Amino acid sequence: MAVTIKDVARVAGVSASTVTRALTMPELVHPETRERVKRVAADLGYHPNRAARGLITGRTGNIGLLVPDLANPFFPSVVKGVQARAHEADYAVFLADTDEDATAEIGLVRKLSKQVDGLLLCSPRMSDDELRTIVGDTPVVLVNRRLARVPSVTPELLDGMRQAISHLTALGHRRVAYVAGPRSSWANRERVRSLRTVAAAAGAELVETGNVTPQFEGGVAAADQVLATGVTAVIAYNDLVALGLLNRFTARGVAVPGEVSVLGFDDIPLSAMVHPALTTVDLPKEQSGRAGVDLLLQLLAEPDRSPAARRELPTQLIVRASTGIAPRRV
Amino acid sequence: MAVTIKDVARVAGVSASTVTRALTMPELVHPETRERVKRVAADLGYHPNRAARGLITGRTGNIGLLVPDLANPFFPSVVKGVQARAHEADYAVFLADTDEDATAEIGLVRKLSKQVDGLLLCSPRMSDDELRTIVGDTPVVLVNRRLARVPSVTPELLDGMRQAISHLTALGHRRVAYVAGPRSSWANRERVRSLRTVAAAAGAELVETGNVTPQFEGGVAAADQVLATGVTAVIAYNDLVALGLLNRFTARGVAVPGEVSVLGFDDIPLSAMVHPALTTVDLPKEQSGRAGVDLLLQLLAEPDRSPAARRELPTQLIVRASTGIAPRRV
DNA sequence: TTGAAAGCGCTACCAT
DNA sequence: ATGGTAGCGCTTTCAA
User: Fold this and answer.
1) Which domains does chain B have, with CATH numbers?
2) CB 3.0-4.6 Å disulfide test: which of B53, B92, B285, B296 passes with B77?
3) Cα(B54)–Cα(A114) distance, rounded to whole angstroms?
4) Which residues of B touch A75 (CB under 8 A)?
């Protein structure tokens, strides 16, 4: 059995209460006693049982993190950010991968919510209504999604999209396709919304193709439709989809960027590793994770603040040398 | 406050004990009572507090998972496998990313070990001795590492290496470089060991270059040394390193696979997405995660089985069309 | 400044 | 088949 507070108390010759105090409210105990207790605790390798503590304090010291798909490199980056910040604040992280399944999401939330102080929902796929029911039960912060009166961390998509379209139009592109991600994705809806606004303002014609799974395969699947539209440039829902497009274009002998330019979203690490490198819009990833934890801790500290905190993090177009983007051929 | 067992007991008109029994040992309670209790529990949305339960049963229903770096796509795949299997068995997963830091690893293990039934250490970087101290405290299963008397899941590296070398020698390569990963990595030491054995048997000359970080940057850094050795083929510690090599070779105008062939390890998803695609040795990833959980559950169920269970999972050379491997030029 | 006692939510044991 | 009681490890009164 692990060493408990009683063991420490006995060895240090004090009561359990004093051990607690020495460790969590040091100023309330005599310096001499305090040091002795701390030394004994260290010697014995005592670490308080957080579950037992949680039973009393109502705080578990854990947070839950849900992501749709760890296989999409975007999410591991966010997770790393969450981990880093959480551990700094001495929180441990429950992780669940929902496999892009809104139903699984809800089940996992229920299961996790009992053992955590709060939940970080990253790009949740469930509906607004479903989200609402959860928000009622447990402190929740959204990453990559917004909902009225719920704290959230989101990227400045409108600005990112503006940068993307400016870049393309500066290179002479006038007809641009957008390969959409999952219909249930807020990120996708926001991209579409921003894109329409920005394209209209820039006088570019926007061609929207159907929704695809936000993975490599989605891009592969959409490539031929994109070519059929005769556009000179295509914006993909994310980098994985962009890579899928690239792959299928190459397979069909369509030169990138010679005949068609491809622009991605996310700036996953891999986008700089391929050749040609991907031109893409960098979304904050680690940073979103960290900011999400910050908001959650803040929410836990002062539960009845209003309105809900909302952080928007900047985005940045990344233009790389020898990339999949070129001026429009005349 | 959440609904507790007392609430259910009161509403159902029974004692707390009966509620427990109705829910966890249904056969011990009268069918009528059982149904009533279950209905009330469902109506009230009662879910037992796992922390409180764990206090008594000594079981938390949680497992801890440590990985060195989520940014390496190999690990998210393992994590997905762990998640999937764990949730099937109604376990929740604590995840910690150690950033390739052996010291951080130990700290995180200590912190997590109190709130989990067992630990899955994936490619741990700490020393054998450090590992030993942990194994004494908590049930541990190793993934991608071996240690005497500790259950583990590992890939059949020797066989994978044999496939790799056979492939290269069949294509005429006689001098092959190996770009090593972290010195603290068991996976790296095993690769080296297998490689020496297999290369000797195949009559190939092996040129070992220094250790690099197991990331894209590591490959970039090693590329020039590799070229200086004059080998016609190079095996990288993993796919990320292989991509780094590829990138730097290309930058220096060295044709791949024209002048030098590159072979990776892992078969991360991305290796099929790039162009040229990566020829690589597939290591079981999701499967290792699942197997690791299986072993851990088994260990928890029968703590004093011996000798330690040990599973070796098959590896497979993946040869792709238009890949970074070619016959040796004469 | 310290200790004793109560109790968090739950389950195990001993009654009945 | 069911209830009462004790106790898991810890913190928080309350009293001294």
Assistant:
1) 5-57 (1.10.260.40), 62-153+285-313 (3.40.50.2300), 157-283 (3.40.50.2300)
2) B285
3) 13
4) 76
Tell me the nearest-neighbour CA distance from B201 into chain A, angstroms: 35
Which residues of chain B does A219 touch, with a Cβ-Cβ cutoff of 8 Å? none
Q: Which nucleotide is closest to the Cα of B57 by its C1'?
A: C11
Say if residue A321's pLDDT is above 80: no
Among B115, B243, B270, the residue with its CB nearest the CB of A50 is B115
Could you give the CA distance from residue B185 to residue B241 in angstroms, rounded to a whole number?
Answer: 15
Whether A94 sits inside 8 A of B97 (CB atoms) is no
Question: Looking at residue B120, what is its pLDDT?
Answer: 97
Q: Is the CB of A40 under 7 A from strand C?
A: no
Is the pLDDT confidence value at B15 over 50? yes
Structure tokens at B226: 């590799």
B270 compared with B289, residue with greater pLDDT: B289
pLDDT of residue A107: 87
What is the pTM assigned to this prediction? 0.91
Q: Is B79 within 8 Å of chain A by CB? A: yes
Could you tell me which chain A residue has the CA closest to the CA of B217? A273
pLDDT in the model for residue B1: 64
The more confidently predicted of residues B288 and A306 is B288
Closest to A125 measured CA to CA, from A139, A145, A96:
A145
Amino acid A44 CA to nucleotide C8 C1' distance, rounded Å: 26
Which CA distances in Å does A258 have to A250, A327, A329? 11, 8, 8
Pick the residue from chain B with its C-alpha nearest to A62.
Answer: B94
Residue B4 neighbours by CB under 8 Å, 6+ apart: B46, B49
- Residue B174, token pair as written in the block: 């006689």
Tokens matching residue A310: 């909302």
pLDDT at A330: 47
A147 CB below 7 A from strand C atoms? no
Cβ atoms within 10 Å, residue A195: 23
Q: Retrieve residue B64's tokens.
A: 């801890």
Q: What is the pLDDT of residues B92-107, one digit of tens each?
A: 999 999 999 999 999 8
In the predicted structure, residue B330 carries a pLDDT above the cut 50:
no
Question: From CA A255, how far away is CA B158, in angstroms rounded?
Answer: 41
- pLDDT, tens digit (0-9, with 9 covering 90-100), for B289-329: 999 999 999 999 887 666 689 999 999 999 987 565 666 65
User: φ and ψ at B20, to 5 degrees?
Assistant: -50, -50
Q: Tens digit of pLDDT for each residue in A178-199?
A: 999 999 899 999 999 999 999 9
pLDDT over 60 at B242, yes or no: yes
Burial of B24 (0-12, 13-18, 19+ CB in 10 A): exposed
Of B221, B223, B228, B230, give the one whose Cα is nearest residue B249. Answer: B223
Quickly give B43 CA vs D2 C1' distance in Å.
Answer: 23
For residue A32, the Cα-to-chain-centroid distance in whole angstroms is 47
